[in-house]
Amino acid sequence: ALERASATAQFDLTLDTYESGDALSASLIYATSLFERSTVERLAAHWRNLLEAICREPARRVGELPLLDRSERDLLLARRDQTGEDYPSRPFVHQLVAEQARRAPEAIAVLFGEQRLSYGELDSQA
Predict the structure, then answer these.
(1) Domains identified in the chain, total number
(2) From CA 61, how far away is CA 79, in angstroms rounded?
(3) Mean pLDDT of the chain
(4) Shared-domain flag, residues 100 and 74
(5) Is there a single domain that holds both residue 115 and residue 72?
(6) Which residues contact residue 108 at a Cβ distance below 8 angstroms, ignoring those fewer than 6 apart?
(7) pTM of this prediction?
(8) What is the three-class DSSP state of 93?
C-alpha cells in the first residue's frame, strides 16, 4: 500500500518504505510546487512495480527488474518508433564475428600492441 501523506514536505520528494506486518507499506511526500500529482502517481506506480518484482524474483539484480508495467512500456516503445521505416535485416556484429570465425578461425581479429586474438578465440570468448 502506498499512502500519500498530507504533511508538509521537508524535501522535494520523500519516499519511505517499511514493513507493516506481512506486507510492505510506503508513504510519499512531495512538494506540490515542484511535482504534478500525475507525475508522483506514476513514480509511485513504478516503485510498486519494482517492489512486486523484487518479491516475485528476489534473486535477480535490482537493475534487471522492471519499473514500468507492460502497457506503459509498450506505449513508450511505440512513441519512440515514429519513423515508420522498415530497416533491412542485417546481421549483428556478433553474428558477423561468428561467421568469420567459421570461415577463418586463425585470422587475426584483434591486435593490441603485441597481443593478438584470432576470430576463433574471440568467438569462443563471446
Answers:
(1) 2
(2) 28
(3) 87
(4) no
(5) no
(6) 116, 117, 118, 119
(7) 0.55
(8) helix
pLDDT tens, position by position, 24-75: 888 899 999 999 999 999 999 999 999 999 999 999 999 999 999 999 998 8
Within this chain, do residues 66 and 111 fall inside the same structural domain, yes or no? no
Report if residue 86 sits inside a domain: no
The residue behind cell 556478433 is 94
Residue 4's pLDDT is 56
> Structural domain of residue 68, as residue ranges?
2-80
Cα dihedral sign for 69, 76, 78, 75? positive
- pLDDT at residue 87 above 80? no
CB-based contacts of 21, cutoff 8 Å, min separation 6 = none
Residue 75 inside a domain? The answer is: yes
Q: Looking at residue 12, what is its pLDDT?
A: 93
Separation between Cα atoms, residue 6 and residue 23, nearest integer Å: 22
DSSP classification of residue 16: E
Element (H, E) at 54: helix 37-56
Q: Within this chain, do residues 38 and 64 fall inside the same structural domain, yes or no? A: yes
Reduced to 3 states, what is the DSSP secondary structure of residue 82?
coil
